[in-house]
Amino acid sequence: MTPDPSPLTTTPVPSATVPPPSGVPGPPYVTGVRPEQLPAPPPMPFLDVLLNGALAIVAYAILGVLLLIAGFYMIDLVTPGRLSRLLRSDRNPNATLIATSGITGIGLIVAASIWSSGGLLREGLIATLVFGVVGIAAQTVGMIAFDRVAGISVRSLIEEARLQPASILLAVTHLVIGVITAIAVI
Fold first, then answer.
1. 166 near 152, Cβ under 8 Å?
2. Taking a C-beta distance cutoff of 8 angstroms, is the pair 117, 48 a contact?
3. Closest by CA position to 105, among listed 185, 174, 184
4. What is the pLDDT of residues 56-85, one digit of tens each?
5. What is the DSSP-derived secondary structure letter of residue 79?
6. What ranges do the domains of the chain cover?
7. Chain centroid to CA 166: how far?
8. Cα–Cα distance, 127 to 12 (Å, whole number)
9. Residues 6+ apart with CB under 8 A from 147
10. CA 17 – CA 29 distance, rounded (Å)
């Protein structure tokens, strides 16, 4: 049985391209060191990791809630009548179901936007904002298009006092449009 050869006596090390040291101008240069042999950057202190993570959670939560509010107003804009009145005062089950499915779809889009943003906090928040707004717009257009293609009048559904089967169809469709848009964001 032969002992393992020393890593220093095995095959030659392929050259690696590494960036020049900080402050040295010019393109990367070649050394005889593999990238995994380069020294690791110093680890962040644990408290810094916790504070940065907590800051990211708060920032994404605030942005997510703002996007949900914007999404609610988009649904209100495309729904006949004042949505808050239809939900609170009139207690309309059709408006409630359609609004609930729309908000759930928007929540999925916002969550997907946060999930796919990655990277640094500022860039992640900007990506979440852009993906969230585009996703909300895409869902709204999809909702309007399906309602028209299906030939279902949201206005007549909203005027009904009892839950209608067409409201269930629209609600499921709006939710699925939200899922499709969320997957597209990822």
1. yes
2. no
3. 174
4. 999 999 999 999 999 999 988 888 888 888
5. S
6. 46-185
7. 30
8. 44
9. 153, 154, 170
10. 6
